[in-house]
Amino acid sequence: MNILLELFLVFAKIGLFTIGGGYAMIPLITQEITQRNWLTLEGVIDIIAISEMTPGPFAINSATFIGIQQAGLIGGVAATMGVATPSFIIVVVVARYFTRFKDHHIVQGILSGLRPAVIGLIASSTLMIAQNAFYITGWEGWAKLLSAVDWRSIAIFALGLVGIIKLKIHPALMIIISAALGIIFFTWL
């Protein structure tokens, strides 16, 4: 299959089955991208970090970056169009009919079923990223687990959590602080 068509179709599939926003799509992106050997798990996590640091929606940024990596600028366009097309069509249809059917018991049932699924997808993304970011290799007892954890990453995570929740540091500033800590911890220490 032509790489441009494949990029479009893969990201159209991701866009079609992404309910709950960008974070909910991380498991699907990870499976589709690693299965095709376009990126490793670490590469996907790097794309997630880059997509979060750059302006714009996560889904668009991820598709664009991966498309460019695979087929240059035109690959970025193909992947971006793929991820955006299903969402555009769904939003147009939902906008047209949602107010008329929002109180219907079937629509309410669908929404009630999707809410916990979205939370599960986001939670699985969080755990996958945490496992990779903190280098947890598996449960083999406390001694093995503690020696496998990257404490520098844990420290940056903890400082970010405290900074955002307790100290009310603006998220943009927290990203800059975390990047600076990354340079200090991973380059100089």
Overview of this structure, please?
The protein is an all-alpha fold and 189 residues long. It has two domains: 3-133, no CATH class; 138-189, no CATH class. The protein has helices at residues 3-16, 26-35, 41-53, 58-101, 105-133, 142-148, 151-165, 171-188. Helix 3 crosses helix 4 and helix 7 (151-165) runs antiparallel to helix 8 (171-188). The protein is globular and about 55 Å long. The relative contact order is 0.10. The model has no long low-confidence stretch (mean pLDDT 84).
Write the layout of secondary structure elements.
Blueprint: H1 3-16, H2 26-35, H3 41-53, H4 58-101, H5 105-133, H6 142-148, H7 151-165, H8 171-188
Helix pairs in contact: 1-4, 3-4, 7-8
Summarize the structure.
With 189 residues, the protein is mainly alpha-helical. The chain has helices at residues 3-16, 26-35, 41-53, 58-101, 105-133, 142-148, 151-165, 171-188. It folds into two domains: 3-133, no CATH class; 138-189, no CATH class.
